[in-house]
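Troubleshooting entry. The earlier prediction with pyridoxal-5'-phosphate gave an output that would not parse, so I re-checked the input for stray whitespace and re-submitted. Clean input:
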Amino acid sequence: MENLREMNTSTRILMGPGPSDAHPRVLRAMSTPLIGHLDPEFLVVMDDIKAMVQETLQTKNPLTFVVSAPGSAGMETCLVNLLEPGDEAVICIHGVFGNRLADIAERCGAKVIKVEADWGTPINSEDVKKALASCNPKLLAIVHAETSTGVLQPLEEISKMTKEAGALLVVDAVTSYCGTDLKVDKWGIDALYSGSQKCLSAPPGLSPVTFSQAAIDVLDNRKTKVQSWFLDLTMVKNYWTGAKRAYHHTAPISAMFAMREALRIVLEEGLENRFARHLKNHELLRDKLEAMGFEFLVEKQYRLPMLNAVRIPQGVDDVEVRKCLLEKYNIEIGGGLGPFAGKIWRVGLMGESSDINHINMLIAALKEVM
Ligand SMILES: Cc1ncc(COP(=O)(O)O)c(C=O)c1O
């Protein structure tokens, strides 16, 4: 094979369902020279990350750390550790990621009781109540921000019902984390996973997770071995905590450097300010899109500020427009998934990409393309 040229990818404006644009400080941190994954200086970096993840998740849970793999691995970490064959699990499904949760829970050997809602609408709490009463649930799992539809799922009432049923509440916060309010302790969340590449605006490939004491008790009382070696919390937690930190796997060191810087940027801005910025930019985009005749898929009160799902107007070619936006204007937006393929666009305003200049560029480009 002849020598390939040096890689030279385009500079894109990332306005899809993730990843989002990364701050130059994050990219600089990622190019820091490598150190070893058990170097005392790297262990300090891990401690810093853990403390900042606790703060951004609004939790004091000691078992809070970052899985060295993307959001789907965080999802799998929660379920493989908490479920054993024969357990009953209530899984809420109102989009792609609820389906993924159900698939993983089934692979754990659990009996899955599904609570479904039409895509584009939130899960109904009365349906949750019935499902919890129909079985002996070990846990209930639900997606906070359904990236496939743009729905923000209210959690507090469902959390209360889950507790009353004696089950653990597992939450997917891949897209909501650092973009809208997420109170792990106050809302009674027992296990939660997120991703680095959405509103945190760090490179993809890391999944912050946290577990309550009730979740740890369930883990400690397992009768069977966790079937995944890599994701078994009993082992990986020794790499993240305690005086005697033991080798578990070689951490993605550069990605962790970047994540530390991304977390610092979030805390410099302040959580409340960051949530307010996401909301304000969503409203600005909404006004501009509606003025062009676009309709939102989701009812106003359940809309995600960081993921705007709009119906593609009649006669507009989905693939052609997105291709033109990417090739001519370097702008990435997302298409629809599953039943919404070809029917909606998903415009992300996540983290660094939640920005007025991004909005103006997209609107100007859309006006020329459509
Ligand atoms: C809500 C939600 N859950 C889970 C995932 C899976 O995350 P990853 O693609 O990082 O594995 C995503 C990714 O888009 C997501 O949006």
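This one parsed fine. The mean pLDDT is 97.
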